[in-house]
Amino acid sequence: MPYQVPEPKIFACTQSTVLAEKIAKSYGAELGKIRFSRYSDGEFQPSFEESIRGARIFIIGSTNPGPQNLMEMLLMLDAAKRASARHITAVMPYFGWARQDRKDKPRVPIAAKLVAKMLETAGATRIITMDLHADQIQGFFEKPVDHLFASTLFLPYLKELNLDNLCIASPDMGGSKRAYAYSRALESDVVICYKQRAKANVISHMELIGEVKGKNVVLVDDLVDTAGTLTKAADLMMERGAISVRAITTHGLLSGDAFEKIESSQLKELIITDSIPVEKSHDKLKVLSCSDLFADVMHRVHHNTSISSKFLM
């Protein structure tokens, strides 16, 4: 009788439970049982409420700040390792702390590297994530990293809009590679925003490199935090004669007064994924689910088949 690969077990960190339920449903499985014990001072302890000995398990959780989300993932990885799971995959739709991927001034940490080491030390044998802030973060890991691109979700949506005179834009110089990849897929022009920051989340000056007059512009970025860059870029492009400005950003942090900025800006639409739970709804906000993408990749990883088709960029 041929050996059949046992099905994996899927578990969720608390802040990603809704997305994990969608992923599990798309995979054709149910979420595994896990319980969190909490102390009055805020300390917590996860406990797997079923055997995972010798199993492949997927632990789903984005690690956006605050630190509790990362700590949940680390404790669950450690618990799985000590419970003798055979393969432990950290499924992180959003890899938090990734903006600190280098020393941009003296005496600061490289947090992305530190988080990578912590995940491996805790017990992760594989990482599945999406749209890292910088591709080279993969090199911080000694374990395999499957780096997915939300372009597999965004490109079909943009094509359905059927926009004339389409122009892809990057909100900064660092995102130019991403913008050029989208422009190749959509056969469109590209413009780049050049910005200078007074400090984190505060832009002192912005200029455009390229022409947007008479065009429907789509800004592409990996994340939106306070929405300062996107809304300032949208307003500037409309001043320069653009017909409309939309933005696609994989991870919607949407902190501070982001929604107020979006509402008062000339941004027509903001399209994000559900890699991070969205606390509010908004007329300008469109959320595309990444659950089918992660479920498909998890299935391919479990059955040792290629995932190359998920790398459109």
TrEMBL record:
Enzyme Commission code: 2.7.6.1
Domain Ribose-phosphate pyrophosphokinase N-terminal: 9-123
A GO cellular-component term linked to this record: ribose phosphate diphosphokinase complex
Record keyword Cytoplasm present: yes
Keywords: ATP-binding, Cytoplasm, Kinase, Magnesium, Metal-binding, Nucleotide biosynthesis, Nucleotide-binding, Transferase
Name of the protein in its database record: ribose-phosphate diphosphokinase
Record field: catalytic activity: D-ribose 5-phosphate + ATP = 5-phospho-alpha-D-ribose 1-diphosphate + AMP + H(+)
